[in-house]
Backbone:
């Protein structure tokens, strides 16, 4: 377990493999092997419990090197999530339930 990461569940995003995993503090160790001149960016994102049934974790814009850094604003309530992003691209988030509505720039 990484120092400072104490939440029960979180996301692990692997940029080059385009892989999103839900992990816990009790998850098995994740083996990592890198070939020479190859890199991988790992992002660890906390999963927030919005209600008894809904959990949410935003990764950000996955086409950017620092995907989490593209999130400029984040507002949670029991029934909705508002996100402000810097840049353009592919947004990735984890949700334990499918959203009922999605808006982009208010539409």
Residues:
């Amino acid at each position: 377990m990484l120092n400072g990461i104490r939440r029960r569940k979180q996301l692990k995003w692997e940029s080059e493999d385009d892989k999103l995993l839900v992990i816990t503090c009790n998850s098995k160790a994740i083996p990592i092997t890198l070939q020479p001149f190859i890199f991988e960016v790992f992002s660890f994102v906390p999963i927030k419990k919005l209600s008894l049934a809904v959990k949410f974790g935003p990764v950000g814009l996955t086409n950017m090197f620092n995907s989490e850094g593209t999130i400029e604003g984040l507002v949670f309530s029991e029934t909705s999530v508002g996100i402000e992003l810097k840049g353009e691209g592919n947004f990735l988030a984890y949700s334990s339930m499918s959203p009922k509505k999605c808006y982009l720039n208010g539409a």
